[in-house]
Amino acid sequence: MSSGHPSDNEDPEEPRAARVDELDDDLRHEEEDTDEDKGSTRPSSPQAGQESACVQGSSRLELAGDGGTGSGSRVSSMYDSLFSWICRRTIRRGPFVDPTRDQFRTMTRLYSSMSPATDSMNLSTQTHGAVFNLEYSPDGSVLTVACEQTEVLLFDPVSSRHIKTLVEAHEDCVNNIRFLDNRLFATCSDDTTIALWDLRKLNSKVCTLHGHASWVKNIEYDTNTRLLVTSGFDGNVITWDTNRFTEDGCPHKKFFHTRYLMRMRLTPDCSKMLISTSSGYLLILHDLDLTQSLEVGSYRILRARRAPIGTEGSSAGPRSGGSRHTIDSKAHPHREGLSPRNSLEVLTPEIPGERDRGNCITSLQLHPKGWATLLRCSSNMDDQEWTCVYEFQEGAPPRPPLSPRCSLRLTHYIEEANVGRGYIKELCFSPDGRLICSPYGYGVRLLSFDEHCGELVDCIPVRTALLREVRSIYSHSDVVLTTKFSPTHCQLASGCLSGRVSLYQPHF
What distances in angstroms separate CA 428 from CA 111, 291, 368, one per listed residue? Predict the structure, then answer.
């Protein structure tokens, strides 16, 4: 077979050259269609266009110089054209190329064909009570299940094989599980404790952490400082230094306190902490420094009257996402003497249809790339529920307190099925952030920002838009309480009130 370089004495065969040109044209048309779907642009600089043209020209020259006439030459030419097409796309985008941007059509088809796995019947947890939380290990090799009846279950999500049951992992309901790495994970419970576990030695806990005075509901982990962060219904956010843990526990301190605390999350880069409350407020700590405690009690602002959207003291216009109150060292006595880090912002996020009534933020998740926050909100009467997406607005410094700039903007929302009142439904983002999985009655539904399952930054609407339903799947006989995407496989898990776990994967 020819090496693919041109020769002075060889002329390309006309029919074969035509076939190659047709293939290259087809790939180019496919490229244009893909770019049009995603809203991408052509090279903005002449240099970028010249580079693309050079690569295209060199690929044609190499293809034309192949003097072979067999089928092997045609296959090689096709591969070379495909390779040159990939090179052109890479050069145009620069050094930072996200493979998922090129594969979104494939992933959309896969997620659209999601169905319950035939062997997910083995994941029955009916004897262990309701399923409150699901968590995959970072490498996707283990699925952990937090159960109402004090136990934690471990499964192999690929084979659906039961690995281990941690009998009496706690003395009360297990609420949340968080992996620190591929082997170490933490669990928290209504017994007010947190436990550390090692996958290599599951017969006993690594240690038990005591510090909360009420039910512990949420666990986060700062990979930069290796601090474990927990929150509970006692209103406390506590940090635990896992660098110095022993069998008796590890050093801890109270980082923050607020009333009505429901959920706490850290952004992926750990630069912000978000806290949701049952009174409808969302607290954001900017420029987060977990090594510095905020010695505060209850904030007067949490008992203040809710400010209407668009009035003085709030951000108006189409990019307004809710009223905002800023607390800094000059406006609040508790912050005197502290550094500018950990500045607190208190928001009342805009909820569709709930402008004049209170609401409760029950579930709080963050986009895997830190672009947005995902909230599950219920009305004050608990007769309506919504899933809402709020984009982080960065860049401009805050204006004076009388006219602040809101950090969040409501971009997408959808009303949810009002089933299972009083229970918290945990939703989640897919690993690439293109899809949302939401508990929906006795099943789940996959939601996207547009009909192409595009990335959020590529389909930000001018005005608030509805989330698109990609697929609804009903496989439970009771209310679904929690969902989770696998970080490595095209797989999804859900757990319900009666204790059943279902796995979903593409149907071929």
Answer: 14, 29, 10
